[in-house]
């Protein structure tokens, strides 16, 4: 589904990603871990098409198409969903109106007619129930005045509504208390299927106890330096990242 | 459009006075140009937007002279009696704008150059910066000052020096009749220098009223820091029109603290800060009290000309008796000044039925990547807070006085020099307590 | 940035949607302003002598007054002698039913989205359509008549209710208020007149669409609304004009009078031709609007959505004379291309316990310049006066400007005034967030702007709010970048 080859990216001329290779197939859950500043969130931003990130080398294919060639909204319509580390507040734009617009834009992209109000509301109710999402939040302005946990839950709720093929979760667990973490994880697990895939970016192993990954990758200094299964996450939790850093420094050419 | 108020004696007598003075005066070229400009501008009237609420014309009417009387010889004891002395400072005493070396304690010449303005012509920094401030030519009174200023202080903190003790300038005014005094100052903090300047003011034995029209040009060059305290604390029979024009170069810091706790009839402060290069920081704090029949007018402007600068302004005022307060704060963000952060807040308490407040916070913004805000309030003591204090057994008068002082002390708490803070808090407290007991 | 820049390039040249011209025979006064012109207008309208005298007095004041100098834009030279001050469709003026109306004219309204026939049946909105000065169709008159409500063209009011017109005309906006108000007094063509009798709550929104059509005709309409004791009325004013290359002057005067316990809600959606992307053409919208809360517990509320005109210059205000009266001002002003808006309000507190509320949302895009200018004045007798002002500016693009000039004057120590203003750029993060959910930048900006303006749009009656949202979108098209 997602095929990242030798991806290099820079912000304001500073290299952030330095040759990422990653292959994600439908039905898989990949966790990307790594210390602060290793490039985890940058990878998410590059995949979603944030403007400040300039791809300097490499390619990203999504479902056989060149992802990097698409504008952010087209990527979203093609089925790439980013759960934001810091979901944005947009005053005056109601959650429900926003969602309806997004759903219909995505449908239009796939040549489908707009959803009728009734069908949309039905879907909304069904997903609210599924995701244990507070209906009161639906009529409020998008994320405005939401608590940190509410914002994250709103993002996951949007994921349920938009039914992406690939969901990239950028430190969704940061700032969540244990109850919110449980609800968010349960939501993600309900959305897992053989047709979609998840890339979960996290700093801690904690989230991976709830959402069990098929693969774990360690990102360090803009590159994936180690890949493994969920046991790798446990090892990292235990030892920290320092032992890896030491290993890598030995391998790395002098700059 | 310029409205010239000409039907006043001072204006009429000025050309003749100027002709008399210009002969032996310093810097004749600058003076002539400024006088021409002043004659175009005239004195401002209430039709001049920046003087809409402050009619100066009545203050200019009664036969005002500009010939300074001889400075009286002043003893150390007399100086002490002004109550203005501060501990741990360098001291520069001026009478009608002229430095009195015998009463002064100068900072070390290795760090700071001090000259009388009339004798500063040879200084490179003087040549570079004198009468060059942006917006100087917009100010009616500043032009008059350039044309006819008598003397003042040139202060230059040398590059990379830290002037440990604040420099305390004591302005004393002396008159034998109605008098216009026009001091002129130029202060330069060279790159990396750090300097604090405190200004105090008092009248000596006076007859008649003194109208002080002063101009300070301050240049804070790269990475330099200047903290500037204006303690407008005394001066019955005085009127003050102050122009403070500040230019900031890259990565510099300028802090201004203006406290108007005076008995002067009229105080008009024009404070203009021009941010001429990137990454500057500016803090402007003001507290003003308008009592009796006073008119206290603070006009400030901050010109963001370059990107990545930050300015922050907080002015508060309390209006008592028949006092009138005016506040006008302008933030101007020029086209190139992206990533500007500019904040301004003006809060007013009106505590008397006959007091007035006119406030106008302005934003003029021509760049888009900016964060700017201003807020203004006019109100009284919070009823909720009052009730809370009363519920704890505090009497009405005391409770009100506590709350008004708290309102003022938010500003005084910004003062970094303990002795200065103590002085302004004492004065504010004294006036406000007196008002509460009336 | 570059992809969005492309959108900008592509869409900046978007044509004015309502730019077409109706071909109807017109009865036009020769261009020029003098006493003869005024007498011609007055005669054409069959006015009584006192009104002619009043016009002539306005003309004398116009000659005496000078142009203001305080505005925050360059005042273009207006050639008052080059304007024709009277243009009326030549055909018969009054219609018994819509069937009699020139079909061409009806099509014009249809293109504007106000099909009279449909509205007559469906919307419950009575429309007094002003087509270049002359009222051509008034619907729902009968139903209003039964309640004693007078809703007619200004010209008709002069003929049928001269005593009311004479009593209130010029009492809120003095003839000498400003040069454009004086000009209006001299040459006003037509406009709307509303009188709501004591205790009557007008059961429907009253609405007028103004439209400037003929070339080089200034529009000088005059609106007078009187809400008698205990009455209520909501009045809607919508404006669109077809595309013109020459600048056209619009100098209207609106006066509102609310007596004891009365309430007037006045909403405007203004969408006159803004000129092209180089600033060529467009309407000069120099309008004087003022209401007086004459009676105690009265209320006047202005809501405006200003999206059109090359220059908008107006300050709908409220004089809060009656004790416990309330004044409100809700405004959204959008400037794009090279548009200029210098607008705001004046709240003059005279009576006791008077309250005012000001919510202003400025949006500047491309080269647009947006100025909020407001006056809150608390008089010495206005005990316990309260004002709250929130004044926000949103910037889209780095060549536009947002300016705020609030004047606050208080002469009463029991007054409480609160003013807040913020200026910021449209959030890139917000746009990206919406992009990431499949919404393109153009639409994302629309959503964000509509959200930002919501507090004001919410004040509009439903059908107007929808139109206003559409207009915001049209105005901002091509401004993303």
Automatic annotation (TrEMBL), chain A:
It holds the Pfam family ABC_tran. SMART domains: AAA. SUPFAM superfamilies: P-loop containing nucleoside triphosphate hydrolases. Keywords: ATP-binding, Nucleotide-binding. The keyword Nucleotide-binding applies. InterPro entries: AAA+_ATPase (IPR003593), ABC_transporter-like_ATP-bd (IPR003439), FeS-cluster_ATPase_SufC (IPR010230), P-loop_NTPase (IPR027417). The keyword ATP-binding applies. It comes from the Bacteria. Belongs to the ABC transporter superfamily. Ycf16 family. This is ABC transporter ATP-binding protein. The lineage of its organism: Bacteria, Pseudomonadati, Bacteroidota, Chitinophagia, Chitinophagales. The gene is sufC.
Automatic annotation (TrEMBL), chain B:
GO terms for biological process: iron-sulfur cluster assembly. It comes from the Bacteria. InterPro entries: Fe-S_cluster_assembly_SufBD, SUF_FeS_clus_asmbl_SufBD_core, SUF_FeS_clus_asmbl_SufBD_sf, SUF_FeS_clus_asmbl_SufD, SufBD_N. Residues 177-407 form the SUF system FeS cluster assembly SufBD core domain. Belongs to the iron-sulfur cluster assembly SufBD family. NCBIfam families: sufD. This is Fe-S cluster assembly protein SufD. It comes from Chitinophaga cymbidii.
TrEMBL record, chain C:
It comes from the Bacteria. Coiled coil: none annotated. Residues 210-451 form the SUF system FeS cluster assembly SufBD core domain. One of its GO terms (biological process) is iron-sulfur cluster assembly. SUPFAM superfamilies: Stabilizer of iron transporter SufD. InterPro entries: Fe-S_cluster_assembly_SufBD, SUF_FeS_clus_asmbl_SufB, SUF_FeS_clus_asmbl_SufBD_core, SUF_FeS_clus_asmbl_SufBD_sf, SufBD_N. Residues 136-202 form the SUF system FeS cluster assembly SufBD N-terminal domain. Belongs to the iron-sulfur cluster assembly SufBD family. NCBIfam families: PRK11814.1 (NF008773), sufB (TIGR01980). This is Fe-S cluster assembly protein SufB. It comes from Chitinophaga cymbidii. The gene is ycf24.
């Amino acid at each position: 589904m997602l095929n990242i080859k030798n991806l290099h990216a820079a912000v304001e001329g500073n290299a952030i990603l330095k040759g990422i290779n990653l292959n994600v197939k439908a039905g898989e859950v990949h966790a990307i871990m790594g210390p602060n500043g290793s490039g985890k969130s940058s990878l998410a931003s590059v995949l979603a098409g944030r403007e400040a990130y300039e791809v300097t080398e490499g390619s990203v294919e999504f479902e056989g198409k060149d992802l990097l060639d698409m504008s952010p909204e087209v990527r979203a319509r093609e089925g790439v969903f980013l759960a934001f580390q810091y979901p944005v507040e947009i005053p005056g734009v109601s959650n429900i109106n926003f969602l309806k617009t997004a759903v219909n834009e995505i449908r239009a992209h796939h040549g489908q007619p707009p959803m009728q109000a009734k069908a949309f509301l039905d879907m909304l109710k069904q997903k609210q129930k599924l995701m244990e999402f507070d209906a009161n939040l639906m009529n409020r302005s998008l994320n405005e005045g939401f608590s940190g946990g509410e914002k994250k839950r709103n993002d996951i709720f949007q994921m349920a509504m938009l039914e992406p093929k690939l969901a990239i979760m950028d430190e969704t667990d940061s700032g969540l208390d244990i109850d919110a973490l449980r609800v968010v994880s349960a939501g993600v697990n309900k959305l897992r299927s053989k047709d979609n895939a998840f890339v979960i970016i996290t700093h801690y192993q904690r989230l991976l106890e709830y959402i069990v990954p098929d693969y774990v990758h360690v990102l360090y200094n803009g590159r994936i330096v180690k890949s493994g299964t969920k046991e790798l996450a446990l090892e990292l939790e235990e030892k920290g990242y320092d032992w890896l850093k030491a290993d890598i420094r030995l391998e790395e050419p002098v700059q | 459009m310029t409205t010239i108020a000409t039907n006043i004696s001072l204006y009429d007598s000025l050309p003749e006075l100027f002709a008399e003075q210009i002969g032996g005066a310093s810097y004749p070229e600058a003076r002539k140009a400024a006088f021409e400009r002043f004659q175009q501008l005239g004195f401002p009237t209430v039709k001049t937007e920046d003087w809409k609420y402050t009619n100066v014309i009545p203050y200019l009417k009664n036969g005002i002279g500009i010939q300074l009387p001889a400075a009286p010889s002043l003893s150390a004891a007399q100086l002490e009696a002004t109550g203005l002395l501060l501990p741990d400072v360098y001291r520069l005493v001026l009478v009608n704008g002229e430095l009195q070396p015998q009463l002064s304690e100068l900072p070390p010449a290795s760090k700071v150059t001090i000259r009388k303005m009339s004798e500063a012509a040879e200084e490179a920094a003087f040549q570079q910066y004198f009468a060059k401030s942006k917006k100087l030519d917009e100010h009616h009174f500043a032009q008059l000052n350039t044309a006819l200023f008598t003397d003042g202080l040139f202060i230059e903190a040398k590059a990379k020096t830290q002037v440990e003790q604040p420099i305390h300038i004591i302005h004393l005014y002396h008159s034998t009749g109605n008098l216009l005094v026009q001091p002129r100052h130029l202060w330069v903090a060279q790159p990396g220098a750090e300097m604090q300047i405190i200004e105090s003011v008092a009248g000596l034995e006076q007859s008649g009223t003194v109208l002080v029209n002063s101009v300070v040009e301050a240049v804070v060059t790269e990475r330099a820091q200047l903290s500037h305290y204006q303690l407008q604390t005394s001066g019955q029979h005085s009127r003050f029109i102050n122009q403070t024009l500040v230019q900031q170069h890259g990565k510099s810091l300028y802090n201004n603290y203006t406290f108007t706790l005076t008995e002067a009839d009229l105080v008009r402060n024009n404070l203009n800060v021009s941010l001429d290069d990137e990454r500057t920081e500016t803090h402007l704090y003001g507290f003003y009290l308008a009592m009796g029949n006073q008119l206290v007018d603070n006009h400030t402007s901050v010109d963001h000309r370059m990107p990545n600068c930050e300015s922050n302004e907080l002015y508060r005022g309390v209006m008592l008796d028949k006092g009138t307060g005016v506040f006008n704060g302008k933030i101007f963000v020029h086209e190139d000044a992206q990533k500007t952060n500019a904040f301004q807040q003006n809060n007013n308490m009106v505590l008397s039925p006959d007091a007035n407040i006119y406030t106008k916070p302005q934003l003029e913004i021509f760049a888009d990547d900016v964060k700017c805000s201003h807020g203004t309030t006019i109100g009284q003591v919070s009823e909720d807070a009052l009730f809370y204090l009363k519920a704890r057994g505090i009497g009405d008068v005391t409770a009100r006085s506590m709350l008004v002082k708290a309102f003022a002390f938010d500003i005084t708490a910004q003062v970094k020099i303990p002795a200065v803070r103590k002085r302004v808090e004492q004065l504010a407290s004294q006036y406000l307590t007196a008002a509460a007991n009336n | 940035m570059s992809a969005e820049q492309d959108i900008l390039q592509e869409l900046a040249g978007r044509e004015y949607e309502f730019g077409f011209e109706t071909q109807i025979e017109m009865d036009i006064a020769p261009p020029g302003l003098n006493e003869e012109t005024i007498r011609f207008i007055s005669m054409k309208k069959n006015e009584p002598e006192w009104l002619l005298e009043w016009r002539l007095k306005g003309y004398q004041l116009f000659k005496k007054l000078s142009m203001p100098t305080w505005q925050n834009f360059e005042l273009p030279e207006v050639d008052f002698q080059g304007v024709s001050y009277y243009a009326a469709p030549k055909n018969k003026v009054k219609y018994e039913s819509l069937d009699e109306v020139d079909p061409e004219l009806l099509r014009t309204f249809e293109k504007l989205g106000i099909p009279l026939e449909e509205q007559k049946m469906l919307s419950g909105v009575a429309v007094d359509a002003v087509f270049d000065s002359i009222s051509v169709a008034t619907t729902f008159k009968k139903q209003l008549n039964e309640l004693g409500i007078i809703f007619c063209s200004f010209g008709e009011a002069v003929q049928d209710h001269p005593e009311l017109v004479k009593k209130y005309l010029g009492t809120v906006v003095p003839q000498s208020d400003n040069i454009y108000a004086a000009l209006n007094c001299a040459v006003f063509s037509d406009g709307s007149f509303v009188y709501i009798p004591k205790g009557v709550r007008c059961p429907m929104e009253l609405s007028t669409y103004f439209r400037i059509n003929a070339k080089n005709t200034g529009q000088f309409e005059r609106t007078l609304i009187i809400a008698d004791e205990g009455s209520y009325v909501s009045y809607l004013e919508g404006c669109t004009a077809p595309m013109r290359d020459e600048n056209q002057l619009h100098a209207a005067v609106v006066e509102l009078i609310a007596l004891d316990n009365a309430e007037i809600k006045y909403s405007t959606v203004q969408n006159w031709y803004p000129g092209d992307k180089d600033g060529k053409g467009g309407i000069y919208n120099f309008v004087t609007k003022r209401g007086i809360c004459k009676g105690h517990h009265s209320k006047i509320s202005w809501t405006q959505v200003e999206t059109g005109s090359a220059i908008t210059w107006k300050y709908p205000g409220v004089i809060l004379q009656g004790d416990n009266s309330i004044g409100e001002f809700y405004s959204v002003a959008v400037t794009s291309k090279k548009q200029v808006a210098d607008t705001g309000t004046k709240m003059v507190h005279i009576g006791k316990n008077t309250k005012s509320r000001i919510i202003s949302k400025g949006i500047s895009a491309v080269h647009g310049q947006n100025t909020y200018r407001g006056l809150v004045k608390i008089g010495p007798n206005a005990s316990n006066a309260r004002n709250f002002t929130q004044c926000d500016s949103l910037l889209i693009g780095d060549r536009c400007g947002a300016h705020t000039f609030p004047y606050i004057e208080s002469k009463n120590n029991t007054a409480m005034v609160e003013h807040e203003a913020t200026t910021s750029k449209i959030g890139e993060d917000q746009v990206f967030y919406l992009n990431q959910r499949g919404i393109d930048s153009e639409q994302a900006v629309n959503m964000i702007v509509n959200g930002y303006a919501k507090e004001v749009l919410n004040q509009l009656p439903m059908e107007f709010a929808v139109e206003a949202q559409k207009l915001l979108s049209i105005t901002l098209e091509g401004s993303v970048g």
